Amino acid sequence: MNNMKPVKTLLSLSFATLGSLATATLSAQAAPVVFFDNMFTGATSFDSTVNSVDGTLNVDTWTSLPQGATIINRTDYSVTKVDGSAMFPSVYTLFGSSPSTNTSGQTIDISPSSSDVELSRLGSAIQFTFTTPVNGFGLEVGDWATCCQPSNLYISFDGGTPILVGASTVFGDQFLTNGGAGVFVGAIDDSGTFSSVQFWGNGVGEFLVAGGEIRYARVEEGSLTSVPEPATALSLLTIGVLSTAAKLKQYNKKS
């Protein structure tokens, strides 16, 4: 009877390990892919990533947007402020840029209303509502990192957990486009598809604009941040069971 105790212990440990492996494998969720760079390199990186997995990419340059509207309708989506306020689009010239550089198109004022992430979302975020679900989104941001640090930028899909896409801690640390206050930010979450996207910042007290050239995309689920498929998980479990059996066989021979 004493010889059975090590066997039981080995079995318990082995199957406990396999159970943990199965749980971790099947429940793992990969983080979204984040894009943060100057306006030109960032946009190119976003496009290349979508194209690398044969995704569908759309680019919309904001021109001739209406003034004073609370909703702006584009071909594939509509634009609103989460707080319902009116929008007055304009092209932004990047502070400090040399040579002088403008955003690719018009932008909308989304100056943060609070340093609290959720309160600023409610008071200043811009929302894009799509007619066909997407899972990739990017845009240009202007006049950021000019004051009021710490100042962060966030994207959220379908009102979910904010995704940090930019962080500034001191004046000028993110003047990335021709030395001026302009960046491209974006995110792709291939865990599913989404009907709305929100974008905002929390550097309360700073002037902040977003828009210019909007990028939105759809890639296959799991094509960029895939986790092991069920078949892979089953293979791992099978290997574990065989390993356990081999150890038991060796133990029996020694006994």
TrEMBL record:
Residues 1-30 form the signal peptide. It comes from Rippkaea orientalis (strain PCC 8801 / RF-1). This is PEP-CTERM protein-sorting domain-containing protein. Keywords: Signal.
